[in-house]
Amino acid sequence: MNNEIQLISDGDGLAVIGNATDVELFLVSEGLPSRDLGLQRLKSVAGIGAAVAQAGSDIAAGSGRWVKMTPKSAQLVKKYGLRENAKTGLSTGVLKGHKGQIKGFVEFARTPRSLLTNPKVLAGAAGIMAQIAMQQTMSEITDYLATIDEKVDDVLRAQKDAALARMIGVGFVLEEAMAVREQVGRVSEVTWSKVQAAPATIAETQVYALRQLDALAEKMERKTKIGDLAVTAQEAESKVREWLAVLARCFQLQDAFAVLELDRVLDSAPEELDDHRLGLKAARQNRLEHISRSTERLVARMQAAAGTANAKVLLHPTKSPTAVQSINRVATGIHDFHQRLGIESGHRSSEVRRWVDAATEARDKALETGAKGVDAARSLGSETLTRVGSVKDKISSGIAERALRWRKNEEEHDGES
Question: Angle at CA 57, nearest 5°, toward 51 and 63?
Fold first, then answer.
């Protein structure tokens, strides 16, 4: 592996594998932050054949770093033209250099020692990459919970529902299993037996939290009075934050279970690891989409409520902006939640319509209406005067005609006498 770097991308991250100096040089030159990939665990594939075991040992002896997939690292994958395998979903390539200087071209390794020519070792590396990606998300969720200043266990304990109570126990069990895994380096039968029932409880809690968010949105939709809407929006602000914290904790524990599950498969049935990894990835994506649909519906319904509040700002100059501000904070909180989970979000705050702006708009409309009225009156007056003049002319003409007839009659009468 001297003077070459092997690159693997699974869409969530990029693995950079090779000599420690070359790997470090490459990452520094590209300006990419990274974390240890833990390649030593590839030695566990030794039970599936001597040749593969040798390749696994060789790879494990090198350096492996994992880079989170961001727009910058995704551009790197495109830059080096990694070749995608439709079956595994992995993009791979080898970067070769001379005397430790990595050059900017990719070619595919032909030597037996290459990671890319050993599908089972490659599957093992991809499995480890999936675990690292999930652990990265778990860490980011921990930071998120600290940022919103919510202790999830406190939120759970404050609830009387059995599903939420069981969630606390499941969290303790999974955290214990992760700690043992970190110490031992694998997931034993004993550890696995303790966590197998966890997914059902986590799923039950997730569904419950999503229903609570739907209930909050429905409650807000039923409010027609601005005063009630403002109060409900303020209450929803804290409630939504709490239930988002519960959802984040659910996702975090589901990722923890998946990490343990991949370890178990790697240890007991490594030939099934690739299919299992793809299955877990699809299931995870389904969970994300379900959460995204539910929370986006909540945002849409609250934005509609904000529109109602904005429309009545003239009558409620204090309560209307208060309602909109609370709704905007909820939308911002959901956007942050999406970012932590890797959900693309099109967040847009509702503009808080100021009373002065609304009053000015109303005044302008009134003045515009008044101006149109004056113009109409003037137009009507002019038309009336024109009509009066026309009538006057007609009357004058009639009088003149009658006077002329009267004088003619008089002359005729005098002539006869």
Answer: 135
